[in-house]
Write a structure and sequence with these properties.
There is one protein chain. The protein is mostly helical. The chain has helices at residues 2-7, 17-35, 44-54, 61-70, 77-98, 115-118, 121-139, 148-162, 167-177, 184-194, 196-208, 215-242, 245-248, 254-257, 263-267, 269-287, 295-306, and strands spanning 108-109, 112-113. Strands 1-2 form a two-stranded antiparallel sheet. Strand 1 (108-109) and strand 2 (112-113) form a beta hairpin. Helix 4 (61-70) runs parallel beside helix 11.
């Protein structure tokens, strides 16, 4: 019985949120280091750069959401680790490519030089390509779920969230919008794809790792994830305008320098903050009726909106 409880995400004797978050982030770091190719394996430079891009940095919001969603369905830890690492690898690849000179042309990420600065542009391009492939390799592990149909749903969800109808499409819209003024609905459309798609996939993948949920529960979780994805971007825009480079670990004020449309440029800082608070309240409401195991999801909604970095 004790072994079964250790292998499954439970919340019976719960640590506080900060302790849970720290423990989960540490677990994800160990899992990522295990799944990434060792740095001495050929091609060594590429593998070193992949590890540089992924390890030792980031809030791991998407893996945290994966684990919190897995708690709803009694998901085994080993499954959730794979799903969480797959989502984080997609996220890391997107950051590597976004920072390149042909995109946002940034030199700092997570408090250290960006991959194309530390290595070179060609290596950075290959790092993104390799991380994307490795993410799908993790989810395609034979027998991961014991249910091929559900495993295919997970692969489909991550592919959809990553491609032109998701994150990559949102980045394309973002690049095309530079120098233009966007309305709040237009900003929402862009960020539902660019930021929100992968956050929604993280929640879905974590949920799919455990016992099936009824359709109405999936709908509530998806609404929660959609709101969290948008709130995350609203707060990101506020922090870009208010916080320092040292606090953020990336270049502050870059949106304004590049004349990018943001929630701050559309609404001002005070109204943008108020919008994030509204989204937080709606995210909490979306969890109502889903049972007692939504505590971590609710706490993550608070973390996303109230964070300072």
């Amino acid at each position: 019985m004790l072994r079964r409880m250790n292998q499954t995400i439970r919340m019976t004797t719960e640590p506080d949120f900060q302790a849970w978050m720290g423990a989960t982030q540490a677990r994800v770091e160990v899992a990522l280091a295990r799944f990434l190719p060792l740095p001495e394996i050929a091609p060594a430079k590429l593998h070193q750069a992949m590890r540089y891009a992924v390890l030792d940095g980031g809030k791991r919001v998407r893996p945290l959401l994966c684990f919190a969603a897995g708690a709803l369905t009694g998901a085994p830890v080993e499954r959730v680790e794979r799903a969480a690492c797959a989502v984080e690898m997609i996220h890391a690849y997107s950051l590597v490519h976004d920072d390149m000179p042909c995109m946002d042309d940034d030199t700092l990420r997570r408090g250290k030089p960006t991959v194309h600065v530390e290595f070179d542009e060609a290596t950075a391009l290959l790092v993104g390509d390799a991380l994307q492939s490795l993410a799908f390799q993790l989810l395609a592990e034979p027998g991961l779920l014991g249910d091929p149909e559900r495993q295919l749903r997970m692969l489909h969800a991550l592919a959809l969230a990553s491609g032109s109808r998701g994150m990559a499409g949102g980045q394309a819209i973002d690049l095309a919008a530079t120098g233009n003024t966007l309305s709040v609905p237009e900003l929402e459309f862009m960020h539902i794809h660019k930021t929100g798609a992968l956050i929604r996939a993280a929640v879905q993948l974590g949920t799919e790792c455990g016992a099936p949920l009824p359709a109405e529960a999936h709908a509530g979780l998806d609404r929660y994830a959609k709101l969290i994805g948008l709130a995350f971007q609203v707060v990101d825009d506020v922090l870009d305008a208010e916080a320092s480079t040292a606090t953020l670990g990336k270049t502050a004020g870059k949106d304004q320098q590049q004349n990018k449309p943001t929630y701050v440029s559309a609404l001002g800082i005070a109204r943008a903050r108020a919008l994030a608070e509204e989204m937080r309240a709606e995210a909490h409401a979306a969890l109502a009726g889903l049972g007692t195991q939504t505590k971590r999801l609710a706490e993550l909604a608070d973390f996303v909106v109230l964070r300072k970095f």
